[in-house]
Amino acid sequence: MTVPKEMPEKWARAGAPPSWSRKKPSWGTEEERRARANDREYNEKFQYASNCIKTSKYNILTFLPVNLFEQFQEVANTYFLFLLILQLIPQVSSLSWFTTIVPLVLVLAITAVKDATDDYFRHKSDNQVNNRQSQVLINGSLQQEQWMNVCVGDIIKLENNQFVAADLLLLSSSEPHGLCYIETAELDGETNMKVRQAIPVTSELGDISRLAKFDGEVVCEPPNNKLDRFSGTLYWKDSKFPLSNQNMLLRGCVLRNTEWCFGLVVFAGPDTKLMQNSGRTKFKRTSIDRLMNTLVLWIFGFLVCMGVILAIGNAIWEHEVGTRFQAYLPWDEAVDSAFFSGFLSFWSYIIILNTVVPISLYVSVEVIRLGHSYFINWDKKMFCMKKRTPAEARTTTLNEELGQVEYVFSDKTGTLTQNIMVFNKCSISGRSYGDVLDVLGHKAELGERPEPVDFSFNPLADNKFLFWDPTLLEAVKMGDPHTHEFFRLLSLCHTVMSEEKNEGELYYKAQSPDEGALVTAARNFGFVFRSRTPKTITVHEMGTAVTYQLLAILDFNNIRKRMSVIVRNPEGRIRLYCKGADTILLERLHPCTRELLSTTTDHLNEYAGEGLRTLVLAYKDLDEEYYGEWAQRRLQASLARDSREDRLASVYEELLGATAIEDKLQQGVPETIALLTLANIKIWVLTGDKQETAVNIGYSCKMLTDDMTEVFIVTGHTVLEVREELRKAREKMLDSPHAVGNGFTCPEKRSAKLTSVLEAVAGEYALVINGHSLAHALEADMELEFLETACACKAVICCRVTPLQKAQVVELVKKHKKAVTLAIGDGANDVSMIKTAHIGVGISGQEGIQAVLASDYAFSQFKFLQRLLLVHGRWSYLRMCKFLCYFFYKNFAFTMVHFWFGFFCGFSAQTVYDQYFITLYNIVYTSLPVLAMGVFDQDVPEQRSMEYPKLYEPGQLNLLFNKREFFICIAQGIYTSVLMFFIPYGVFAEATRDDGTQLADYQSFAVTVATSLVIVVSVQIGLDTGYWTAINHFFIWGSLAIYFAILFAMHSNGLFDMFPNQFRFVGNAQNTLAQPTVWLTITLTTVVCIMPVVAFRFLKLSLKPDLSDTVRYTQLVRKKQKAQHRCLQRVGRTSSRRSGYAFSHQEGFGELIMSGKNMRLSSLALASFTTRSSSSWIESLRRKKSDSASSPSGGADKPLKE
Taking the CB of the first residue and of the last residue of the chain, which one, N or C, has fewer CB atoms within 10 A? Predict the structure, then answer.
């Protein structure tokens, strides 16, 4: 926006903004926002956006042109439009225009209907929002206005449970001190209430008359998408007042527990932070999409080559032969030479042969993906009964990519754990509480614990809170000053909101589960946080109400990693209470606490080793003079518009102790990780927790095991230290066993292929690296060393990482590894990681829904990931690959017949088939069977997919559809087309009808070839279908029936009577198919086309079966054994009691069970037993890929799977 030239002179007074705020920004940009209350004329000069929002793309007039323009930006649509234009040229086209326009219009129409439906719902939503009513202060009175008519500078009145219409500066409210409570679920997904407060100077503007006279002006930052930051200044009554995010009500919030409030509109419509955050997510494409685009270009090149060959043939034929028959076959008027005839023939053949890439391919792919997405949404085994939350596929473009994942990047808290925090242990003044000891002084196990602590002395205690160590409560009751100060800090240092619905029934609304757990613990031990105002906090301390004056809150952020409050107690003493990360607080403690510090550090390490989340608590007494100076510096920092947050953070401790909160693992996490690891998926955990906590969780969820060769821990503080630790880790991996897995021998001389060598080392390793070391490891000159080391490890844990570092780690693997990555998380700090990965998965947990909103797939528990990948992902990849292979095969078999026919028709671009058959082949005769296979096919049932994780590996290696498989399909299609043309051609050369007349004519030949083609491709899809449903049967046999019905209809008397110029060959189909010779020809063609495929598959199944073949065979054997067992039970014959078990069975798995490695043992053991030979081809291929892979710098390496 541009500041207008008519800048008012009002700023000449003393309270005017400084000179920097009067600078005019360049045209088209907005460097600052100015909004004056109750002055629409002034605000209109800036041409700010209205409050009308528009998320729709079209209207009635623009829909058709804009939608067509968007669709023709797709290369495929433009290509087919070009073909249609060619077909309208009589000298070029030998096909009617409808052979291209019918499928093109069908595709455009389906897409247009989908886009129109989506846009209709956008219009409906926009109208619903824009027409909401709001009370606006206009000319001294409140008037009802639609949201779309609200302008910047208007004063709005909100009432309880109303949505906020625009981004408002809170002026006053019905609550004391200008407080109001809001719910921000629409913004960040958090349902906990948050408090906002008007600045004191406007909090008294509660009546209409005073608000009507308010003429303050806000000068603030321009529109942006930062939800948690706002920087501005209010100029009013010759004074200026700092504004922050705590004074703002953002559009999308809901007013709660507040009767009314007034706000000044600062940002409206598209300028609001909600709309600024609604930008489009980066479009993700699958590897199959990228490969398919490349293959389509190759096919187009092949098409051009065929066109050139046939065009040259036409020119030669016309020159050598055609010129002799000008009297019978004259050239068109425009053709004056054989060369020009060849030129026109080239374009004619481009039209005829274009069906090698039909437009229906793209529509079919989208339909299949949509079906796969619905299967994920409908999966009852991924439905969480507790939360009533189903799995959700939020995109339809990435389903097959789920079957190719090699790296999973996971958050810990809320993703692997439940994010339901329980106050478990604490350390107070050097003494640890929380462990329960038996009579011998040993820690009691869970089943041996006595009754939990009795909190009946406290009428305000939370009955759900459990604690097992009675000595802590005794210390509180005895009046221990350190213990009292400990819980006093927990009851004061927080941002929790308290709600008391009935007397004594307290409900805490906390922004994080940790805060809620700590305040609840203080509540049960007698320090009950009761209520707060902007300037006070009331706590019931051992039954006595004490009100503290709240002087300042220094909230937690990722830089400070601590939270502090400054309070004045009833005696007038000022004290700062602080809680935060040990890495930050311990270095700020007074030297006199060194002994206590040592003991507390030991306790912290003990708690972290048990997987508990820790915080350190401390306080400091402040004198009045020091506090006054600090408060003045803080005020100056708050008035700074630039870098205000940094200045506040820089203006700043006796140690009380530490807390330890338990965050339990989610159900099924260890089993899921074990199963994914067996599927050769590497799991990296990226967490902000302490190293010890993260390592303990790693052991709990079986990422780390005691059987690992070594766990490397990188903790260096400098670049040199980190590089040295990574170097030592690589040396140990190479030198320790000195032999490389899979039969490789470690070369004495380090080669450029260090990564592939590292990934082949024998032994299992893990890497743990903390945040400050990771910052050095991610630098440009060291990232490859870090990647080499990490990718050679079975598990990687990065602790104390920031959201940005999470995204950087994912980007590093994406950049240098040709592998599909998946990121999974549940909080706002995981959004960048989720968006960076190839596939993003959001957990709908305790931290709002921001991760879900940014994700491609969403569900409620981590354990569902195994089903998403091993079942839905693997099936989607398998189905898409089989669909593409068959699709290219059937279209080459269909199209190449024209190529062979060209050599027998003088290269005249005459078609073999009837033009209606050409039109209907891909959209009627062969579309539904391949769609059914692409949507419903399975190689093995879902139970076997979970039991045999090795079945997932072909997707990681991209074995089922690649350039090699593509060329095999093309070769099969060309082979089929050769037989399809030459067998009927050879038969028809000599064959006669029943009456002795010549059988060979053009229409009879066309019917025979077309019928052979439809039958052959139908038999082929029957062979390709691995899982038959009623729908498959109906589509395959139904398509054949439709073909014959349409064939006979087009050669019937009825159509000839209605359209004599279009359907001239009456009775041809009936006469042709009535000849036994024709059916023998069709049968011979079908057998010769299909038998090599059947023979090859039989030999492959017998000599070199896939793992899926072995699993299917095992399943058949099990069914047969069950049937035999039932028969034996029915016979009921008696037998000896002596068991043959001990003699006939091989050594069991007892030792393996006791070692804890037997996840899904029965199936996995069977897999290892039955697939030793069948899976060797995967291993050998993996070794070849590792041999040929380059180092990460080349970006082509691939991990060698064990």
Answer: C
Residue 1164 is predicted with a pLDDT of 36
Of 279, 290, 258, 296, the C-alpha closest to 161 is 258
**Helices assigned H by DSSP within 548-589:** 582-585
What confidence score (pLDDT) does residue 340 get?
A: 86
SS (H, E, C) 92-105: CCCCCCHHHHHHHH
Is 445 domain-assigned? Answer: no
Angstrom distance (rounded) from CA 114 to CA 370: 13
Domain end marker among 1069, 1101, 1133: 1101
Nearest of 966, 1169, 1182, 935 to residue 406 by alpha carbon: 1182
**Residue ranges of the chain with pLDDT lower than 50?**
1-28, 446-447, 642-652, 737-754, 1131-1178, 1181, 1185, 1188-1202
CA distance 1184 to 301: 31
Collapse the DSSP code of 745 into the 3-class scheme (helix H, G, I; strand E, B; otherwise coil) and give the result.
strand
d(CA 343, CA 310): 10
Q: Say yes or no: 173 and 213 in one domain.
A: yes
Q: Which residue has the tokens 């099990």?
A: 1118
- Looking at the domain assignment, is residue 1134 inside a domain? no
User: Any binding-site annotation on 826?
Assistant: yes
Kindly give, in sequence order, each residue whose CB lies less than 8 Å from that of residue 102, ignoring residues fewer than 6 positions away.
919, 923
411 is catalytic: yes
pLDDT on residue 319: 85
Quote the pLDDT of residue 25: 38
Q: Are residues 269 and 172 in the same domain?
A: yes
**Residue 1012 and residue 117: Cα distance in Å, rounded?**
41
pLDDT at 541: 92
Distance of alpha carbon 543 from its chain centroid, rounded? 50
What is the Cα Rg of the chain in Å?
A: 38
Does the annotation place 672 within a ligand binding site? no
pLDDT of residue 1161: 34
> What is the predicted pLDDT for the residue at 187?
67
Rounded to whole angstroms, how far apart are CA atoms 762 and 758? 9
Cβ atoms of 1080 and 1011 within 8 Å: the answer is: no
Residue 688 labelled as part of a binding site: yes
**The two structure tokens encoding residue 479:** 């009046």
3-state secondary structure at position 211? helix
Domain membership flag for residue 907: yes
Please give the full DSSP string across 1099-1161, using - where no structure is assigned: HHHHHS--HHHHHHHHHHHHHHHHHHHHHHHHH-----S---HHHHS---SHHHHHHT--TTH
318: Cβ contacts below 8 Å, ≥ 6 apart: 331, 338, 341, 342, 906
pLDDT at position 640 is 60
Options 154, 188, 379, 411, the catalytic residue: 411
Task: Confirm or deny that 412 is annotated as ligand binding.
Answer: yes
Query: Rounded to whole angstroms, how far apart are CA atoms 100 and 354?
Result: 10
Query: Could you give the CA distance from residue 166 to residue 50 in angstroms, rounded to a whole number?
Result: 10
pLDDT at 1130: 52
Q: Is 687 annotated as a binding residue?
A: yes
Per the CB < 8 A criterion, the answer to whether 384 and 378 are in contact is no
| Residue 262 β-bridge partners | 157, 172
Angle at 509 between CA 505 and CA 512, to 5 degrees: 140
In this structure, what CATH number is given to the domain that contains residue 853? 3.40.50.1000
- pLDDT given for residue 1065 in this prediction: 77
Q: Three-class SS of residue 254?
A: strand
Percent of residues in the chain assigned helix, strand, coil, to nearest 5: 50, 15, 35
Spatial neighbors of 483 by CB under 8 A, at least 6 apart, are 428, 429, 472, 475, 476
Cβ atoms within 10 Å, residue 468: 18
The domain in which residue 557 lies consists of: 421-438+451-635+648-663
For the chain, give the number of residues: 1202
For position 510, what pLDDT does the model report?
77
